[in-house]
Each structure stands twice: as C-alpha cells, then as structure tokens.
Amino acid sequence: MAEGFLTLTDKQQLAKVLANVYDLKMGPAARASFLDTAGLGRFVTAVNLAAEAPRTLAQELVARLEPFGMLPAVPSQPQYHALGALVDYVRQMADTNNADAHFLAEMMVKYQLIADTAYLARLKADYQLDTEPVRQTDPALSPPSDPPAPADEPPFDPTVGDQAELELIVNSEDNFIDIDMLAGAIYTAQAVGRIERPSGRALGTGFLVGPDLMLTNYHVFKDKSVLSSAVVRFDYHANADGVTTQGRVFEFQPDFYIGSKDTELDFALVKIKGEPLAERKMQPGDEDLGYLELLRRGRHRGYLLLAPRMLVEHERVNIIQHPNGNPQKVVLTQNYILADMTADRVHYLADTQPGSSGSPVLNRYWEVVALHHSGGAHPPQKANNNLQKVLKGLYKFNEGIPIRAILPKIERYLPAK
Fold this sequence. Notes:
This protein is α+β, with helices and mostly antiparallel strands. Helices cover 24% and strands 18% of the residues. The protein is built from eleven helices and 13 strands. It has helices at residues 8-19, 28-37, 54-65, 82-91, 98-110, 117-126, 163-166, 179-189, 291-297, 385-388, 403-410, and strands at residues 192-196, 202-210, 213-216, 231-234, 248-260, 267-272, 318-321, 329-331, 336-337, 346-349, 360-362, 368-378, 395-402. A hairpin with a 5-residue loop joins strand 1 (192-196) and strand 2 (202-210). Helix 1 packs across helix 3 and helix 4 runs antiparallel to helix 5. The longest helix has 13 residues, at 98-110. The two termini are 24 Å apart.
C-alpha cells in the first residue's frame, strides 16, 4: 500500500466537494451503488456507509483511497489510482458545478491520478490549468497506443472521388457505440422483465432493484390485490429469425407492496417469489470486471443500480423495454433529455410504446436514472417555458420519474451492501 500524498489543504477541500455529492447524502444503498459504479466496489464493505454525516463519509473515503495505489488493470484501458477513479467520476457527474469540476480536474493533473498522459493533457486544456504534477505514475501503466493503419491501406483523401460523400456522420450526432456499451445493454437486460396479468397477457415492464425486488409503475400495479394473479417473465427475447424464447416466469409475493399514485411518483415496489438471477450470482473477484467480461463468465449483480442523478438537457439515455408486450427491445441512439429535469418529472426523446411502462431509463453507465412513465406530444401543453422552447412543433416525447425523487421512498427496502 502506497503512502499518502495529498496536501492537507487539498485533502480538506476534496472532502468538502465529495460531501456535496447527492448520492453520498443518501442512505447506505445509494452510497454503495455510487461507489460500485465509480469502479470502487471493492471498498463498499470496507467503508462505513452508515455514517450519518456526508462529510464524515467523504473523509473516510479519501483516507482509504489515497494510500491504496493503482486499481487492477482493465484490458486496453489506462489504470486509475483508486482516488482518481472517485475524483474523475465525480468530475463528470451532471450535479457537479463548474468550480468543483475545475478543482477535481486540477487534482487529477496535480497528482497524476490516471496513467494516461494524453487524458491528463486534455484535462489541462479543457479546464485551462497551469498546474504542474507533484507526483508521477509508472508510464508502463499507460494504455496501449492505437495500432498503425495497415501499410496497404491508402490514406483518406476527401478530394478524391466520392469519399467525402461516402464517409459522413448522418444526423446531428454520431451513432458510434463502444462494444462495452453493447455488453452493458445485454447485461442490464437480464434484470428487466415483462409483467403479465394473467400469465401470458402483457401488462407492462419492470426491473430488479434487489435480488427479489422489482420496480414498476403504479398504473401497472395499483394495489397489492392484483399481485396474486400477476407474473413477471424474464429472458423473453426474439432471435434473428424471429423465433421467440419462452423465458422464465416468476410469481409475486402478495403481501408486499409500496406505491405512489400515478398523479404523484407513479411507482410500485413489489417482491418476487425467488431470486431470478441467483444462478448468475457474482463471485469474489468479479466486482471490478467490465460488462463484457461479466457476460463471458455468466455473472450478474442480481439487480440494477439506482442513481439519484440530476439529469440535464441533451444528456443521452437508453431504455430497455417490452414495447406492446413484444420480446425485449433496447433503444440506444438518438435518445436524449429534452430539458433539465424538475423535482419529479423528466422528459426525453426516445422510442417507446404501450407496454413500455415501468421500464428503466439508463445513463451511459447503465445506472437507472428514471422510471419510464408515459409518452405524448411534445411540447406538452403545460410544459414550462424552457421545455416549450426545446423543439418547435409537435414531436413524440416521453416522460419519466427521476430516481432522485423515488429513492428516498424505497431506500430502506433495498439491499444493503
């Protein structure tokens, strides 16, 4: 284990910034999910997540991460220092204000908290930093450079023939997707199921937030009386030939129900008989693996992580769903937040259909940031002025309930890590 290296001033300021992170102001489940998504799952059991004061928790995190050293290597990626994984994750969060993001970027550069000189150079340029590093990381930890182009491949020349027309990004944003993003979709989909009542008749979508806990909409389950006649079907897919698997069916426990009316937060938290992903339970050593490797090993956490993030205009989102009760689908590109979310609603452009109610709305880390709720014409007639200005004319839009609003109502029922 390495020695500490932060100055006292930087250590105090870092703890102050971390104490303002919304997730760390929540209870143990939200705090554990936050650390897990930041790539620091190994520290979940070591840190006192029940600490009442966020500042106390932040100080403990800094004290444990600073001397830990570099995290285990991930193929084709630079290595983060344990503290760097936390600092850089918070820097990129939508909730982080400009002043705090500037300070966190300065920390990354000053203490060389990632073994990637190009990345650190971009941070210096983006934040206009004149900070000089006070420590160095081992250059051998840097990621491999991109391989050179094959010798027989001619360089691209937009003035020759129709090359300029052939190689274009069509639409307003690119559709390039990292392979790990696709793996994240498949990993996440395992925890999403089609709700039926009675068995065989599609009613909506739901997703696991605990080994046996499912979150869906109130307008799917309006009270516990319907649970005894409902089931959820996991792994309901269609292959490339259109052949549909029957999936795996689970019943609900009829005596557990937590809900909020559709005019309020429109959620229902229910329990399943059994644990749908128990046979894929993660083993020791799996915590730091990427989605692609977890899929190869057939591992899963057993549920999805809830993230009480502030969602901002133009942020991209993904939705896994059972539209019209059909086999599972995912929408990955050209989906984005239309305007900064309010306390209890968020609007986004994405493809959904009846039957998608109760689907998870996910960010690029495959955290659940909202519960899909409804769709309609955009802008809605009662939308605020900012949302009315997003698009001219009427377009299909979708509405979700931010996890930030739901989590305080259900956190005590979620699994403790």
